[in-house]
Amino acid sequence: MAAVSRVGFTVRNGTISGFKYGIYLSSSSGLPRTDVTATDVRLLAAPIDAWPGTITFTGTRQDACLLSGLRLVDGLITIERCTVTRQTVMVRGTGSAIRSSTLTGGSLTVSATDQGTFTRNVFDAFPMGLSNDSRRNLVRANVFKNSATAGLGAAETFLPQDANTIEDNEFTGNGLHPSGLVDGQGHTVQGGIHLSSRAALTPPATSSGRPRARSPTEAATRAPVAPPPTPT
Q1: CA distance 197 to 177
Q2: Cα–Cα separations (whole angstroms), residue 216 to 116, 213, 222
Q3: What is the pLDDT of residues 89-136, one digit of tens each?
Q4: How many angstroms separate the most distant Cα atoms in the chain?
Q5: Which of 53, 84, 127, 151 has CB 3.0 to 4.6 Å from 25, enough for a Cys bridge?
Q6: DSSP codes, 134-171
Q7: Is 168 left (phi over 0), alpha (psi -120 to 50) or beta?
Q8: d(CA 76, CA 85)
């Protein structure tokens, strides 16, 4: 399905397969941005390609909604109660969200993207990276598991007010960061969050607005990994 500068385009209760792209969106200069809403749509090995576009992709239940890859540039997407597979890339967007979904067998790259919301998802063999000055994103209450790399990587932000918030996530069964990069103390990070030495994160807060004490599990997740012993 292709759409150029179409507003209010809606797709419901269908399956798209056998095409290079399941949904292809673009807009011409001076014309409205394409706006698409898809409900209970399954894209079988047919990714979304949008330059730019505004997309709402939701399911009444996860098995009724399948997104098989995404490349979104200068756009916005909301994904809720869906299954997401394959490579998923967001570049230069503001306000995108992935909520209450299962992401499996791929990866999520969030690049130069601000104020995104990524909550209550399961990332199963699906590492996530916040890169290239992505700012004020919220990553909360997700499960990151079974990734061959660190479950979550975050690059630097340059101003404190632009910090990303990463809290209350669970990490299990993840491996090393693929490039062998290390944390600010020079230790290789295993199984949890990989942060560049300049990554900025806001601390978790209580309802009073004060930073709350971390649980032993959270503290262990964020603690530096001990370096390997020196060979004798």
Answers
A1: 14
A2: 28, 9, 10
A3: 999 999 999 999 999 999 999 999 999 999 999 999 999 998 868 999
A4: 68
A5: 53
A6: --S-EEES-EEES-SS-SEEE---SSGGG-EEEES-EE
A7: left
A8: 18
